């Protein structure tokens, strides 16, 4: 009779529920084996769920393949904060690319975002675009976000034949599809959301040394309680958005 460790090695290679159902170990009544088989049933259900989700998130890309060579997903990070730039990314995933678990970057852990960032940057064509704090104040955050997205597209190596954009239109002259909640409904936009968010988060972390006391590395420029307290104590820094409240009120009160 095989040991549970030997069975673990064998069962971990199973790729379908049928293999578990028809396994010679399915009749083993040892508690350790029963728990082991259930563990791998959960693993296979999780893997299948990820495949199904990835397939559903690929429907826009799949509908364009064959007609369009380069499909770029575009997203931004940083519309809500009261400090820092808005950062956008454009990503062209290679055909056959598969990254289980890819999703809206806000739903991913920091560890997973950074791991996915490396994979995407290694295997895909990507461009990053930034709109400055001054541009945000001069144009408004919506137009600054569009500007950052256009710059991201311009920074791609390949010229995309179609753009998949998260809830926005860019009017670049390239055919485009605006997708509501695109970062949760398109793998290309989800990949762009990962690049944009990690890029902006690293930029904000770097501001900790340039503007000590505000805690930019922690809150990333969002209006948290600690950030607002620092803002009232220290006043607005060069990277605070002067047209955003409460920055605007603090500037006028001093």
Automatic annotation (TrEMBL):
InterPro entries: RNase_HII (IPR022898), RNase_HII/HIII (IPR001352), RNase_HII/HIII_dom (IPR024567), RNaseH-like_sf (IPR012337), RNaseH_sf (IPR036397)
Coiled-coil blocks: none
Main location: cytoplasm
Catalysed reaction equations from the record: Endonucleolytic cleavage to 5'-phosphomonoester
SUPFAM superfamilies, sorted: Ribonuclease H-like (SSF53098)
Domain of life assignment: Bacteria
Protein name: Ribonuclease HII
């Amino acid at each position: 009779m095989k040991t549970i460790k030997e069975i673990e090695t064998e069962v971990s290679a199973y790729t379908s529920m049928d293999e578990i159902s028809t396994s010679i170990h399915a009749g083993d009544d040892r508690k350790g084996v029963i728990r082991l088989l259930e563990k791998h049933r959960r693993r296979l259900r999780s893997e299948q769920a990820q495949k199904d989700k990835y397939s559903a998130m690929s429907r826009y890309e799949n509908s364009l393949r064959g007609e369009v060579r380069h499909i770029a997903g575009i997203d931004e990070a940083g519309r809500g904060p009261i400090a820092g730039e808005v950062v956008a990314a454009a990503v062209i995933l290679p055909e056959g690319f598969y990254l289980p678990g890819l999703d809206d970057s806000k739903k991913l852990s920091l560890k997973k975002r950074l791991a996915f960032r490396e994979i995407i940057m290694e295997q895909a064509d990507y461009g990053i675009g930034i709109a400055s704090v001054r541009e945000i104040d001069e144009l408004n955050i919506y137009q600054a976000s569009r500007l950052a997205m256009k710059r991201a597209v311009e920074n791609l190596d390949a010229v995309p034949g179609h753009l998949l954009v998260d809830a926005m239109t860019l009017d670049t002259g390239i055919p485009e599809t605006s997708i509501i909640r695109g970062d949760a409904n398109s793998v290309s936009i989800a990949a762009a959301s990962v690049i944009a968010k990690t890029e902006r988060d690293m930029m904000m972390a770097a501001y900790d040394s340039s503007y000590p006391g505000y805690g930019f590395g922690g809150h990333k420029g969002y209006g948290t309680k600690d950030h607002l307290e620092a803002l009232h104590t220290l006043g607005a820094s060069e990277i605070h958005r002067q047209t955003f409240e409460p920055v605007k009120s603090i500037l006028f009160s001093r």
